[in-house]
Specification:
- By secondary structure, the chain is mostly helical.
- The protein is built from six helices and two strands.
- It has a two-stranded parallel sheet.
- Helix 1 packs antiparallel against helix 4, helix 2 packs across helix 3 and helix 3 packs antiparallel against helix 4.
């Protein structure tokens, strides 16, 4: 869905600035390829601070490749217009992607009680917390014994024999 939203907003910007429908569609295809290449559509990069440089450099590379193609095929290209498009579309794409990705992925955090010792599995849990983009927060580590579980008021689903 995010691809379609970006595709149509890029076509609109390209057509408004360049006033050339064929070049607008062609340039939009180049922009989408480079935006995908710079991982602008990944959920891990949903923050605006991460989206903006990725979208900016993706659009700059699209302008560069499109201007190189204009040399080979000898069509007239106003570089200023396409540079202007790159800046505006980078802003629009990064704001749109950030808001769409944040609204669909949500920010609900879940606190998790880990059964195990922090010094043994803490580094693994820290990596999971980081890779989940803060969705899981490992609140506490407890010793895996029946007494500690009962003391923490943990509901036992299985019969733990000690």
């Amino acid at each position: 869905m995010i691809y379609l939203v970006d595709f149509f907003e890029l076509i609109a910007i390209n057509y408004i600035v360049a006033q050339r429908p064929v070049f607008s569609v062609l340039f939009t295809v180049f922009q989408m390829i480079f935006l995908y290449g710079f991982r602008t559509f990944d959920i891990e990069h949903k923050e605006l601070q991460k989206q903006l440089p990725r979208a900016f450099f993706g659009n700059i590379f699209a302008v560069f490749v499109f201007s190189l193609l204009s040399l080979f095929f000898k069509f007239k290209l106003v570089l200023f217009n396409y540079s202007l498009i790159a800046v505006f579309s980078a802003l629009l794409v990064s704001i749109t992607n950030s808001s769409i990705l944040n609204s669909f992925t949500g920010r609900k955090k879940e606190k998790v009680l880990v059964i195990g010792r922090r010094n043994e599995i803490g580094h693994i849990m820290d990596e999971i917390e980081q890779k989940s983009n803060g969705k899981f927060i490992f609140a506490d580590y407890i010793n895996p014994s029946r007494e500690v579980l009962v003391k923490k008021n943990f509901k036992l689903r299985f019969n733990i024999s000690s």
